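Anyone able to model this chain together with zinc ion?
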Amino acid sequence: MPFRHVPSLIPAWPVPVPTCEACGERFIDDATGKALDEALESALARKQHELLLGAIASLCTERTQRDWEKRLAISPGYLSRLKAGKESSVALTTCLVLLAQSPATAWDRVGQVWAPPASAPARAPAPVFVMRHLTLVTASAVEAPVTGMLHELEPRLASTATTEAA
Ligand SMILES: [Zn+2]
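re: yes, here you go
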């Protein structure tokens, strides 16, 4: 059956399909279906390999293969294996083709995707602050009788909070 992302793909070799001469209806039995699938898969692999070769060549006008492998967190030598014919996913092939349309821009943009947001808060997030206080209270409460202990702790907690919040 045709691939959803390339419905117009032509089988890599002709597959005879029994067809009614009167109305044109095609009769695809199991054997014919299997033969068609094989011819389509082969065509897809060929098409994908062509796309990958073009994309990698274009990317390498800007940076080395190893640079791109690092940037995209792809294992070392993976792009070479794709060039040699290793099977790839539709998603990876599509991404590489898109990046290869403008390699210089793509290099910067890929970096931006994983960079922290420009508006990242400078202060530690609140939950860390709260956790430290919980630890302090628990430890002290276990060490000494509870009576009076919490009264003693309260001012210390308050002053700690003021210092850390400043
Ligand atoms: Zn017919």
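Residues 135-155, 158-166 have pLDDT under 50 and may be disordered.
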